[in-house]
Every structure is written in structure tokens, then in C-alpha cells.
Amino acid sequence: MDLTERKKKILRAIIENYIQTAEPVGSKVIAATPGLNVSSATIRNEMADLEALGLLEQPHTSAGRIPSPGGYRVYVNELMEDYRLSVQETRKLNEALHLKMRELDQVIDQAGRVISQLTQYPAFALAAGTSRVTIQRFDLLMVSSDSFIIVVMTDTNVVRNRLVRLPSDLSEAQLQLLNTLLNTTFTGLTLDEITPELMRVASHAAGEAYGLISLVVSFAMDVLESLEQRTVHTAGIASLLSHPEYRSLDRAAPLMSYLSEEEDAGRFPVPQGDPMEILIGPENVADALKDTSVVVASYDIGDGMRGVIGVVGPTRMDYAKITARLSYFAAGLSRLFEQGGLPPGDDREK
Amino acid sequence: MDLTERKKKILRAIIENYIQTAEPVGSKVIAATPGLNVSSATIRNEMADLEALGLLEQPHTSAGRIPSPGGYRVYVNELMEDYRLSVQETRKLNEALHLKMRELDQVIDQAGRVISQLTQYPAFALAAGTSRVTIQRFDLLMVSSDSFIIVVMTDTNVVRNRLVRLPSDLSEAQLQLLNTLLNTTFTGLTLDEITPELMRVASHAAGEAYGLISLVVSFAMDVLESLEQRTVHTAGIASLLSHPEYRSLDRAAPLMSYLSEEEDAGRFPVPQGDPMEILIGPENVADALKDTSVVVASYDIGDGMRGVIGVVGPTRMDYAKITARLSYFAAGLSRLFEQGGLPPGDDREK
DNA sequence: TTTTAGCACTCATTCTCCCTGAGTGCTAAT
DNA sequence: ATTAGCACTCAGGGAGAATGAGTGCTAAAA
Q1: A248 vs A250: CA distance, rounded Å
Q2: Which one of B27, B116, B133, B326 is at 20 to 30 Å from A151 when CA atoms are compared?
């Protein structure tokens, strides 16, 4: 967008003022900004120009101006100065990165909660883009004569287990046999490749323990399925209410229900290319987000997966602050996953 | 509460009317209830009596009456008729019991979501009262020359695992030794009983692999810790907004933030004795719940643990319907846990 | 040519006042 | 003991009127 220096200054002043106050800003307050030594009348002329360019809007004739989505776009792309995180903020963010967790799903969930708390906006979190997973190895551990543990490990180094109790006894030798059979037949296969026919053949080969094959394999299939299925976590929905644009229920209710809909990934934007993306108002695809802004960042999980965290808020959002915090946090998460996977209790490690 | 038959009839009619309409009910509508062949004037006299007894309230002189918390109490204890679940409802509830899940924590979370959806009120879910857990058995599974899987099983039959990658190589024999050492030294101990001193002694005994002892044991300790720590899950907060009493943000906002506070168990009531409890308005301990009602039910998880699910709503709540649904669902969960623990993918089984 | 002071005009917001109607309590009659 | 009737109360809603922030335009100044 080609604007004179002064217009840029004025636009920035208006937007930053509006971000703070949530009130339409008039020519008078802008005329008072330091470094801008012109009268309010001049500002009014300039504001009329900016409105003609589609960067400002007027709620009604006798009100000040508010930024249009296009105005925010120009602000975000060209005018916004990098927000410098304070020492305190950095410390807080670092502390928040000491996540206590076990499963990937729970890490993601927690990351969302934390970022919501940190930004005071509702947040969503999900993981995207895993490739096709296969089982790399089976282990069966005898516990007692009538129970054993199944341990499976995928090619993405996720390990899952299950304790099974049997109606009848089983010998160590039988288990051994079963184990070998599983490792020769069912490793390296994706979910689709495990056919009923394959199961039948294997069951036959297992002899006495034929029933156990299907038990173990169906567990393995559940694991594969659970790894491919994506869910979204949302957090901090109530924090919406602290922002003046959501003081009216007509505005708040639909957005809140949209956010708390049962987990269905794909309803939130995911950054393409850049690790951070800002979607302002109508730039959002989902109808419910058409007059909100979404700031979303991604981080590297490893194994071809990316984590996504984002916050949702009014278009009047402190983009500088939010992007600074979000990108810092996402970078921290990337680092966390890179150096040794998840914290203690986890079931995967780099 | 000793009331004449007619007073009971009137009180019930008022409460049930108010539950439906959320509007103060006048003498006229009550006079119209079938089976109550008296004039509105008589009703007015009776209503005045009921108000004197503290069972009804009048928002202002020229309005109808609304039930007081005490009135609801009498209703719930003596007047309410059992709500008969329709076939459709039963089917819906049964369907909802086909939970897809893996970890106990996730089951609990999901139960909360489901019950919120089923009742249209915000719900909370938690697990209460575990005994002290110990590790019953360790297994170390060699994966490659520089990595292995730790599998631990607790006395409550929870199995957890972790994949470890080492900076240096390790032989099968060393791992075997380590395994034996762990099983002789660290089984049957609660979290407190695993002292640094014990760790030191064991590390010494491990010889070359001394560093691995602390690695495995600290994983075990994390598992124990995670099993003892209780968290609350809340769901369906946005559904509050669909009820007329929360159409004003002043009422909705504080309750919503209370509900979405970071998980801190103990902030929600847990049924004592009876498997179901109803707390009406000021009967709640928490300030934020003083003018809401909470209906809470518990179900048996096994291993000395009880699951708790509850819903939160206005004191004007359809107690009959809610309690019917909640107790049916809780009973279903009990059954589910009893017969074979969690569905596929889970890490524990009866 | 650009900027500014001044002025008339617009319009959301707030308030005040008044009306309406639902619902009550009381009294006198049944 | 019940009921019909009546005077009274009061929340809610709508119509103006007052307020004031902010604008656009014009004519003068730089």
C-alpha cells in the first residue's frame, strides 16, 4: 500500500489507539500525538482519504474512525513495530514451557491452555500432518500365567501398551511363538494393509493361541488409528468475555459455541508456509470467525508432524504483542521437542 | 416439611411451571392447573403462606412468585416425581456410553463432555480417592544397541512405557542385570519410599550402567506422581448462555471463569455417601456457585477410585430430568469399568 | 497549495416521564 | 373456608428532550 509518511503515521496512531481503547478515535486525539504537528482539521482531511482507501470505517456519521480489516492488514504488514518482550514476560513464557505431561495429545492440550492464559484470548491447539504410520515391533511380556502385556512400537517411535488378562492359562513358549508370528507378519503395515484375510491366515498359523492374534492386532490397529486421528483442543473460552466487543451475548454466544464445538480439526486455520500467520476478519474461511482475527503459529514436533497453536480474538487485537508471545512460545515448543522429545512420563523420544 | 396436600400441589405446580418458563408465576395460571379446583384468590392466600414458610419468593410486589432455594429443596426431597427416560433418551445415553478412549484421564474428560451435551449444562468430571500406588514390576526391552523401552506396571495394573535412546551402546546382558536390580530394589515402594539414599545404593550396585538406574527410576516416579495427581475437566461452558438466567454477562462471566479456571480439584462438590447429590444455591460452599445448583453423581472405577461427574446450572433446573439422565449415565459408566475396564487402546484392564 | 480556525450539522447515548398491564393484598359477600 | 371485586404497586417499554463527541465544509491564513 502506497501511503505518504504522514498518512502512515496517522493510520498507525489510529489503530494503536483503537487497540487500546476499543472506542472510535476522533481527529482531536490523533492531532495530539507527538511528532505530528498538525491540527485536527488536517487530520480530518487525511482520515477522509484513508477512509476512501478502505483502511478506515465510520460506525456512524458523528463518530470517530475505526480501522477496517484492510486497515489492520496494512498495519500488520507494514506499520507494526516488533513488540519487544519484557524480561518478565520472557520469564513467564519460559516458565510456561516447563510443561508437565505424558502423551502427545496432552502436551498439545496443555500448550493451548498455556497460550490462552498468556494472551488472555481463547486458544486452540492441534497437531497436523502425520504420514502413514506402521507398527515396527511387537513385544509380549508375560506377567502371570493368565495375563500378559502387549507393547507395540511404531515406526515413528511411539510406544503403546496394554495389559491383557486371559480366561485360560498360557505358557511362556506359546507367547514366544505368538510374538515371533506377530513380528514377522504384522510389522511395517499401515492400517489399510492389515486385511481380514491376513488376520485369518495368521490366526491359523497361531494354532492354539489363534484368538490372541486378533486381540493383539486389533490393539495395534487402535493405536494406528489413534495416531492418525486429529483432534482440536480449545481453552480459555471464558476469557472472551473480558473483551468489550464480547460484552454483548449476541456477539459472544455464537463464537463461544463455535469454539467449544466437539473437536473437529479443520475448522481452524493452519499456517501454510510461514510458521506464523495472521488472519484478519473476513480473511477467515469459517463464517463464525468472519469478524474475529486469528493468530496462529506452528512448531515442529518431529516425525513429520507439526503442532499448531493459535488464538482467536476481536479484530482489534494487539497483534504486535500476541505475535511476539506466540512465536516465542512456538519456538520454545519446537526446541522442547527437538531436544529429547517430551518431558518425563512420555512415550516417545527423539 | 409438613404441608397440606393442597399446598404441596400448589408448590409443585409453581416450581414446575417456573422450571419451564423462567418467569415468575402468578396465581391465575396456578388456579388453572387441572385437579386444583379453587379460585386464584385462594391460591394467593396459599402462596402467601408458602412465602411465609420460606419456600417462595417475590422478586417485587407486583410480580408472581418464584421458588426459593428452600422451595427447591422441598421439591427435590418430597415432591418431585421420578422422570421416566424415554426410549429415545435411553438410546442416546447408551450410544454415548460407547466411549472411544485410551487413558483414564481421557475417559473422565470425555464422560464430562458427553454429559454436558446430554444435559445442555456445563459439566465437570474428575476422579477421586486413589490409594497409594506402587510399582509392581519393571521390564526393559532392547530395541537396538543404543535404545530400549522401559515398561513399568503398578499394583493397580496401570502400565506405562517410555522409549529411551542412549548416547553410548549397551549390551543385552547389562540390560538384563539392570532389570533384575530394578525389580528387586524398587518394586512395592510408594513415591515417598523411594529415597535418594536408596537411589545411591542402587546406582552403585549397577556398576557400568549406574546412570541408567536414575533414568528409569525417575520415570517410574513420574508415573506414580501422575497417578496420584487429580485434575478436573470441565466441558460445555458455552451452553450456559442458552439459559435465560445467564443472558446477562454479569451473571454469566464470573461463573464461566470459575468453571474454566485451571484444573484444581476440590473446587467442585463430590457426593458423600449417596451416589448422587443435589446442591441447591447457597448449599454450595464455593461462592461462585452460591446461586447455581449442582447435580453430581459418582461411579465406580475400580482400584479404590470413584469417578465423579456433575452438571452446573441455574437453581431453576429440571432436577427430575437431570438426575434421571445423570444417574443412568453414571450407572452405565460403573458397568463399563466393571466389565473389563476401558475400551481398546487403554492401558488397564480388570 | 497546504493548513487551520470556525461553525453548522449529525446522531448515538442517556435521561426523564408516562403509560400499560400483570399481579398482588385486602375486604366484604357467599 | 372460599371467592369476587377493587384499589394499589411496580417492572418494562416507548417517546421525547438534552447532551456531547465528532464530522464536513468553507473561508481565511501561511
Answers
A1: 5
A2: B133
Distances (CA, A) of A23 to A59, A280, B297: 10, 19, 47
For B259, left (φ over 0), alpha (ψ -120 to 50), or beta?
Answer: alpha
How far apart, in whole angstroms, are the C-alpha atoms of residue B63 and residue B79?
24
- Report CA B65 to chain centroid distance, whole Å: 34
Find which nucleotide's C1' atom is closest to A25's CA: D22
For residues B294 and B322, is the Cβ–Cβ distance under 8 A?
no
Residues B112 and B125 sit within 8 Å (Cβ to Cβ): yes
pTM summary value: 0.83
State how far the Cα of A222 lies from the Cα of A228, in Å rounded to an integer.
Answer: 10
Q: What is the pLDDT along chain B (350 residues), one digit of tens a residue?
A: 789 999 999 999 999 999 999 999 999 999 999 888 899 999 999 999 999 999 999 999 989 999 999 999 999 999 999 999 999 999 999 998 887 656 677 788 889 999 999 999 999 999 877 657 889 899 998 888 888 889 898 887 778 888 888 888 888 888 898 999 999 999 998 888 888 898 888 888 887 778 888 889 988 988 887 777 677 899 999 999 999 999 888 889 999 999 998 767 778 998 988 899 999 999 999 999 999 999 999 999 877 788 999 999 999 999 999 999 999 999 999 998 876 544 433 333 32
| Identity at A73, one-letter amino acid code | R
Sign of CA dihedral B126, B131, B134, B140: negative
Strands (DSSP E) along chain A, which ranges? 56-57, 66-67, 123-128, 135-144, 147-154, 159-165, 233-235, 276-280, 292-302, 305-314
Nearest by Cα to B301 from B122, B129, B137, B113:
B129
**Cell matching residue A259:** 469454539
* Strand spans (E) along B171-216: none
Contact yes or no for B160 and A218 at CB 8 A: no
Joined grid coordinates for residue B305:
477410585
Q: Which residue of A has its CA nearest to B143?
A: A137
* Interchain CB distance below 8 Å, B253 and A237: no
Q: Is A249 on the interface with B (CB under 8 A)?
A: yes
- Inter-chain touch A161–B162, beta carbons under 8 Å: no
Grid cell of B329 as nine digits: 449415565
Residue B77 near chain A (CB below 8 Å) = no
Task: In whole angstroms, give the CA distance from residue B33 to residue B40.
Answer: 11
How far apart, in Å, are the Cα atoms of A200 and each of A175, A191, A214, B99? Answer: 19, 16, 9, 28
User: What does the DSSP assignment read for A274-299?
Assistant: SSEEEEEGGGSSSGGGTTEEEEEEEE
